[in-house]
Design goal:
It is a single chain. With 430 residues, the protein is α/β, with parallel strands linked by helices. It has 2 domains: 3-19 and 231-429, Enolpyruvate transferase domain (UDP-n-acetylglucosamine1-carboxyvinyl-transferase, Chain, Alpha-beta prism); 22-228, Alpha-beta prism (UDP-n-acetylglucosamine1-carboxyvinyl-transferase, Chain). Helix content is 33%, strand content 25%. The chain is built from 15 helices and 24 strands. The strands form 6 sheets. The chain has a 4-stranded mixed β-sheet with strand order 22-23-1-24, sandwiched between helices. A hairpin with a 2-residue loop joins strand 20 and strand 21 (351-355). Helix 5 (125-133) runs parallel beside helix 6. The two termini are 24 Å apart. The mean pLDDT is 95. The protein binds ligand EPZ. Ligand EPZ binds at residues 23, 26, 94, 119, 122-127, 161, 163-166, 187, 304-305, 327-328, 370-371, 398.
Length: 430
């Protein structure tokens, strides 16, 4: 079984290069099937979620060529089925982006319904509402969601909740619909904007992405493009908070500082120094951390995908902090593990009340989900003594070379597969 072994206590110091955004890469990969011409995508993160989506695309006849580790060439002129099989969707929810992309291009798609997820219930009613508004029929049976339209016609669509996934799926379905579609109460996340820019580079006519009203004028077809994915806001934010909890000094490079504003603001509030340049942000944690309150919100609010990371930092901050999770109801599953490392956190409904402690202590930890996993690694890096982390496959869904990047910053972490490797690690460290 693969595990991380970590010895805490070293401040993280140095520079780290941030990769392409996973949550932009997933819809962009799906949207690449919307033309028969060849699309080249650069800055593609090499993480499990994108690789599984690529496999799902290959299973329906899409030809994917890896030019190098972070560049793919995609040609979807030979798709032979519009049915995405069970196995793929179970591994990653984002396979459902192929629903919007295939419906938009072929007016038909069939995808297994995304299964449960361990951060809370994740309905897709707003995706369905959008498809129906464009004239598609949607049917759910035997665990499959089927959608089909004679033709797609533009409409005015109001989303009842701000949803990244629904905004993305409806945008893809509307790109080649007849007329002008408006999506109101749209999500404004950087990855929504990145997808719109990508589609526009293929000949789509999308305006307003990044605001809560997106206007899409249908075009007849899309064409080839060459496009580079934006840097990953959450990977960057994770390293920024890792600097804070380990009392370090880390510069995240290849980022868009504007996308990191809510994260930088909270780091300043808890006592870190922040230096911004055009494409880098430096976080210095020279003083003891102090408490604050935070509520997760859609962009430009504080991201739910950074909630466990800030909680780990607040767990080591002087005073009492309150963290309110307003997006997913079950995103405090890491709290029990953090408590085993010495944190003092009480969860009531969607609120965590955190009384700062002076230190964490190493423990053997089971990773509950992707972002919580990264946050628990951060806690282990700050903790006294050794920690082992199980179920690290969750972390690999969204972080490329996570242990290597941390090692380069001075962390004592290794990925191991056997007990003897753990012993070797301990001998090397002492
Ligand atoms: C995306 O999930 C991200 N995933 C998540 O990142 C992220 O946490 C989330 O957006 C919020 O920012 C990808 O981009 C692949 P939503 P998504 O639709 O699209 C409710 C990570 O760690 N809702 O914006 O599934 C929903 O229940 C992952 O990288 C409906 O009610 O999130 C939630 O409360 C985890 N009906 C809220 O909206 C719908 O039809 C926001 O969900 C759709 C959503």
């Amino acid at each position: 079984m693969e595990q991380y072994i970590i010895k805490g206590g070293n401040p993280l110091v140095g520079e780290v290069e941030i990769g392409g955004a996973k949550n932009a890469a997933l819809p962009i990969l799906a949207a690449a099937v919307m033309t028969d011409e060849t699309v080249i995508i650069e800055n593609m993160p090499d993480v499990r979620d994108t690789n599984v989506l690529i496999q799902a695309m290959e299973s329906i006849g899409v030809i994917v060529e890896r030019v190098d580790r972070h560049t793919v060439k995609i040609n979807a002129s030979q798709i032979h089925t519009l049915v995405i099989e069970d196995d793929f969707i179970k591994k990653i929810r984002a396979s459902y982006y192929l629903l919007g992309a295939l419906l938009g291009k072929y007016k038909r798609a069939e995808v297994s319904l995304p299964g449960g997820c361990n951060i809370g219930s994740r309905p897709i009613d707003q995706h369905i509402k959008g498809f129906k508004a464009l004239g598609a029929e949607v049917e759910i049976s035997h665990g499959l969601i089927r959608t089909e339209a004679k033709k797609l016609v533009a409409n005015h669509i109001y989303l009842d909740v701000v949803s990244v996934g629904a905004t993305i799926n409806v945008m893809m379905a509307a790109v080649m619909a007849e007329g002008k579609t408006t999506i109101e109460n749209a999500a404004k996340e950087p990855h929504v904007v990145d997808l719109a820019n990508f589609l526009n580079s293929m000949g789509a006519n999308i305006k307003g992405a990044g605001t809560d009203v997106i206007r899409i004028k249908g075009v007849e077809k899309l064409h080839k493009t060459e496009y580079a994915i934006i840097p990953d806001q959450i990977e960057a934010g994770t390293f920024m908070f890792a600097a804070a909890v380990t009392k370090g000094d880390v510069t995240v490079k290849n980022v868009i500082p504007k996308h990191l504003e809510s994260i930088s603001a909270k780091l300043l509030e808890i006592g870190c120094e922040i230096e911004e340049s055009d494409d880098a942000v430096r976080v210095v944690a020279a003083k003891p951390l102090t408490h604050t309150h935070v509520k997760t919100l859609p962009y430009p609010g504080f991201p739910t995908d950074m909630q466990p990371q800030i909680a780990v930092a607040l767990g080591l901050s002087q005073g009492t902090s309150i963290v309110t999770e307003s997006i997913f109801e079950n995103r405090f599953k890491y709290v029990d593990e953090l408590t085993r490392m010495g944190a003092n956190i009480k969860v009531e409904g969607n609120t965590a009340i955190i009384d700062g402690v002076p230190k964490y202590t190493g423990a053997s930890i089971t990773v509950p989900d992707l972002r919580a996993g990264a946050a628990l690694v951060m806690a282990a890096l700050a903790a006294e003594g050794y920690s082992t982390m199980d179920d690290i496959r969750y972390i690999e869904r969204g972080y490329e070379d996570f242990p290597q990047k941390l090692q380069n910053l001075g962390a004592q972490i290794a990925k191991v597969t056997a007990e003897k490797d753990i012993q070797k690690f301990k001998l090397k460290i002492v």
